[in-house]
Specification:
Blueprint lengths: L20 H11 L6 E6 L4 E5 L12 H9 L3 E5 L5 H8 L3 E6 L2 H10 L4 E3 L10 E6 L10 H10 L4 E12 L15 E8 L2 E2 L3 E4 L3 H10 L2 E8 L4 E8 L4
Parallel strand pairs: 3-4, 3-6, 4-5, 6-7
Antiparallel strand pairs: 1-2, 1-8, 7-12, 8-9, 8-10, 11-12
Helix pairs in contact: 1-4
């Protein structure tokens, strides 16, 4: 399936928008009262899913057990990566933690600030320098941030530069290893998606679903310790990454 084809009347021949732009615009529309806003998520296998923007505005009463466990584990100065509409950041902030909510989309940052997130920033995690955090929080399949196994390795090597010596990264993912790979020879959890909202279609992007054993093995190569601290049905789990002893 070709995931980078422009969509919408009058868009023929134009480049697609940045990958996350449809999602960010949907968040902004929801904030402004368009509560029926939905983002279409297309996979390279041809499947489509409609995700209501309302999902990203949930309050604590609607959080899953995994989300609750992750938030309970947060401590010290927290970096909420891919913070979206800021739902997790707002809870941590209300608990008295210092939270930096980071998102690559300016529209998402606008939403977070309007909702009361005190330190919402637009930027790329890998370009963050000069600051360290006690907790990095990456939820809603946050382990996918690297896109591929190679990208995951890059993320794991990067972690020590933004964590304090006793710091931790909390992130979730899914074990997809029982499924056949979409491309022969490719790791089953390496997938490609594209987002669409109204007449906006984003560029295709890679996203990774990594099993805990593979995550642990690759973390060890980066001199990090990894443990699964919450497990749910269908392979969904929460992992904690910390500096390995002697690092």
């Amino acid at each position: 399936m070709a995931l980078d084809r422009p969509a919408g009347k009058g868009r023929r021949g134009r480049r697609p928008a940045p990958a996350w732009h449809p999602h960010a615009v949907a968040l902004l529309d929801y904030l402004h009262g368009e509560h029926g806003a939905e983002v279409i998520v297309r996979g390279e296998d041809g499947e489509e899913e409609r995700v209501p923007a309302a999902v990203f505005f949930r309050g604590p009463v609607d959080f899953s057990g995994l989300e609750e466990a992750a938030l309970e584990c947060c401590s010290g100065r927290v970096l909420d990566v891919g913070a979206g509409a800021g739902s997790h950041a707002l809870v941590l902030q209300a608990r008295g933690l210092e939270v930096v909510a980071l998102d690559i989309a300016a529209e998402a940052v606008e939403v977070m600030r309007a909702r009361g997130v005190q330190d919402a920033r637009c930027g790329d995690l890998f370009e963050l320098t000069g600051e360290r955090f006690d907790t990095l929080l990456l939820l809603m399949n946050g382990a996918g941030i690297g896109g591929t196994l190679e990208g995951l390795d890059r993320f794991l090597r990067f972690l020590p530069s933004v964590l304090t010596a006793e710091g931790q990264a909390l992130m979730d993912s899914y074990d997809m290893t029982e499924l056949p790979p979409l491309v022969p020879g490719r790791y089953p959890g390496e997938m490609r998606f594209q987002l669409e909202y109204k007449d906006i279609r984003g560029a295709g992007y890679d996203w990774l679903f990594v099993d805990l054993e593979t995550l642990s093995d690759r973390a060890a190569r980066a001199r990090l310790a990894c443990e699964g601290i919450w497990h749910e049905a269908e392979g969904h789990y929460l992992a904690r990454l910390t500096m390995a002893e002697g690092s």
